[in-house]
DNA sequence: TCTCTGACTATAA
DNA sequence: CTTATAGCCAGAG
């Protein structure tokens, strides 16, 4: 039963990490996987979100976990079995102020704008110098 | 118990 | 740029 216990811990960690994503921003499955200490299991992160209960009475549910803010590393909403779910996620993101562009192939690309990513991009992206990296020490935050 | 699938990603060609 | 491949491992049948 230790296995199930570990699995529960993993689910818990994933949901907690997703809750850390600020409003109006997104991150990738891989990033969540790294946050929970298992950078090689981005797929399982997807499994966790798929199993995210809709019951609002549950500790983690569709209402308190911003599952919609999790997309794939390509900056696109991962297409899953049910296209309706993808569209649903796109709608949810739009509602949060995130701009989603529909590609010719029906792929829903998230417009990161300057930088809509939560903490930062993957190491590869960092090395590429694509990180905005707030210049200066001027710290300012505005939230509605 | 085995097999197949999948809300992923990095790397190679 | 696109396509193929190899890891990863939790569910569902």
UniProtKB/TrEMBL annotation:
Domain of life: Eukaryota
Domain Methylated-DNA-[protein]-cysteine S-methyltransferase DNA binding positions: 10-98
Alphabetical GO biological process terms: DNA repair; methylation
Short name of one Pfam family: DNA_binding_1
Single GO MF descriptor: methyltransferase activity
Alphabetized UniProt keyword annotations: DNA damage, Methyltransferase, Transferase
Signal sequence, renumbered to the chain: none
InterPro entries assigned to the protein according to its UniProt record, in alphabetical order: ATL_DNA_repair, MethylDNA_cys_MeTrfase_DNA-bd, MethylDNA_cys_MeTrfase_DNAb, WH-like_DNA-bd_sf
Protein name listed in UniProt: 6-O-methylguanine DNA methyltransferase
UniProt organism field: Lasiosphaeria ovina
